[in-house]
Amino acid sequence: MKKVFEVALGILTAIGGFVDIGDLVFNAQTGARFGMSLALVTLIGVLGICVFAEMSGRVAACSGRATFDLVRERLGPRMGVLNLVASVAVTLMTFIAEIGGVALAIMLVTSISEVLIVPFIGVLVWAVLWRAKFTVMENVLGFLGLGLVAFAIALWQLGPSWSDLASQAATFDKPGKEDWLTYAYFAIGLFGAAMTPYEVFFFSSGGVEEKWTDKSLGIMRANVLIGFPLGGLLSLSIAGCAAVVLGPLEVDVAALSQVGLPAAVALGKIGLAFVIVGFVAATFGAACETGLSAGYSIAQFFGWQWGKFVRPKQAARFHLVLILATLLAIGVLMTGVDPILVTEISVVFSAVALPLTYFPILVVANDRDYLGEHANGMLSNTLGTIFLVLVVVAAVAAIPLMVITHMGAGV
Amino acid sequence: MGGRSRGSTYAGPLLALLAGAALISGCGTGRPSSTSAWQSASDRVLGTAISGLGTARIAVEQERRNGVFHTYAVVTATDAIETTGKEISSYQVAQPPDALHSANAAVGDALDEATSLLVEVRVTLASPGLTAESASRLVKRIDALRDKLDKLDKAVEKSPQSVGSR
Prior knowledge:
The complex is a heterodimer of chains A (411) and B (166). Chain A is mainly alpha-helical. Chain A is built from 16 helices and no strands. In chain A, helix 4 (67-110) crosses helix 10, helix 11 (217-246) runs antiparallel to helix 12 (256-302) and helix 12 packs antiparallel against helix 13 (316-334). Residues 1-11 of chain B have low confidence and may be disordered. Chain B contains five helices and no strands. Classes of the chains: A mainly alpha (411), B mainly alpha (166).
């Protein structure tokens, strides 16, 4: 019974914790502008994150060490530095976007400017990272993130033509007024949002924090292979709601307030309340995950003591990184920069950094010295290689498309 | 050290070259843009205004139905003004082609109208709040203006010279 509960809890928190500010923004934007025609990209992205999260989780469970720890050891300091710089830069950008996202979500119910809220959110995130137990943090925020399930109920309540939505998803075509380059830009954005690098670092380091062993492989796989795809369905629900409510009015999503409107249309205040709780929990949870991921990556690379499983005094440099990252995020957001803009940029740069993140994981997951009999098999390697090709294509195309399409505004 | 001084030596001429290239290609403030660039900029800004009005329409409708928290509706309307305003500001600082001054003025007037209506929506939503009558009046005006902007957008795309001519 305890095992069943543990699996169910893991799956639920994986669903609730899957969506972050990048998913919220990009799924609503693509839904409103392209209907469900990019749904396949979300599904491919979800499959990709499942493949690499399973690999990094397996590495953590079998070796007892997190990804960065092994990347440097296995691939040498040069490749390690490249991996570190790319991943930390993108993770910090995502951290800033997530804290901004929490502030925007709170602004929706208080109407206080997000710039004034940011310092409090920053301090709160830091306090959670400093004091809260890892499992409590993960489970509470993951559960509250399930408020976003309101989008799935809203979509059902809106009563769209399901065959029409399915046909849009299957045809992989753009609406007539949009151009192919903008379509490609949003496809890469969705792919980058689904495969954000921090998710695998957090997942593998979290495995070490929770003291996974090879006996935990079943629970880990259930979290990844059931929780993540169900989280992906939430992303599709957000896109579906936007397609049904915002699309016909030609609303181009540029603010978090617009993302929640379809839930209000379908479910009224109660649905909207769930969605707002979901927004706060999803962005706050992701802020904690990205903050920790930045600390994990740097500390693991330099061989410092890290993690929340030891007292802060024993991992002083790790906690110093968390403090500096939080101050950086507060400082950037206090300049008044639009958090949605930061989100869009962070998602595109995530796409750019993907190969540097995922290639080392594929290498380490093949090493029998670390994983023994649990090293990658044929299926993992085939899928890993296919996704590596896809992430290289996305990485090469991301910045040119961002420039040419004026960040998705159109050619 | 050597690398740094080499970088400083090249940085000045490189920046000057980039600025020169930008000016020659018509990126300098005050130089008229090409007709196609004006068309796509007008299309973008009109699209943003139509989007802002669509957002305001949902906020008004939901507030009337009591389907949204009052603060949420006001924040939504404020966001719509900010997003539309930013796009309009960057549109207005660009110089239109010489042959399209009246078309540019017509687009500008329509954008002013959109901004004014969005502000009116926000003010009405915030205080004293919507009545059924004021909500229905606002929705009608939003729909009419969205329709107007849509027609203008199509005209900008098809025959920009005809826009704004009497």
